[in-house]
Amino acid sequence: MRIVHYPEPVLLAVGKPVGDNEFGPEFEKSVSDMFETMRHAGGVGLAAPQVGISKRFFVMDVPDEDGISNPLALVNPEIIRVEGEQTGDEGCLSFPGLYQQVKRDMRVIVSAQDITGERLEYDLDELAARCVLHETDHCDGIVFLDRMTSLKRELAKRKIKRLQKTGKWE
Ligand SMILES: [Zn+2]
User: Fold this and answer.
1) Long-range pairs for 23-31: beta carbons < 8 A, 24 or more residues apart
2) Residues belonging to the active site
3) Which of 3, 42, 51, 120 is the residue whose CA sits 20 to 30 A from 92?
4) What is the whole-number distance in angstroms between the Cα of residue 81 and the centre of ligand 1?
């Protein structure tokens, strides 16, 4: 799958919910292709709009404290509750080479369907919480630029222009 880069319109559009009739082998194939694309690109999260699919689902894999892989596919995610705060560097596969400080909630309780359509609840914190919030934003057409302070956003936009000029943003 090809990862689309900012400012492609699909990244700025609100994704459509995955309908009950869409679950099945074809959907599972898209999810598994997204896991492969994410791993190949060295990311910890990838949302459907980032591969040109304007739908509300994403894959993520934030390893636990022992470095053990924890692949999750969240479909039609809904943030139930957040608490605390964390500030740290964030990147995005649709913004190659751009890392910037973003403030996020420290803990998130999110309800989502799995790849079979069953609705589950997840309680995640730290990097996993950051990832869920970042990817759920993608489902809503929000990119991490929108979550930066205005000063950092201006710096980021200038850097993007520079990267585009030198052909490092294709
Ligand atoms: Zn992203």
Assistant:
1) 23/115, 23/116, 23/117, 27/115, 28/115, 31/57, 31/59, 31/73, 31/115
2) 135
3) 120
4) 21
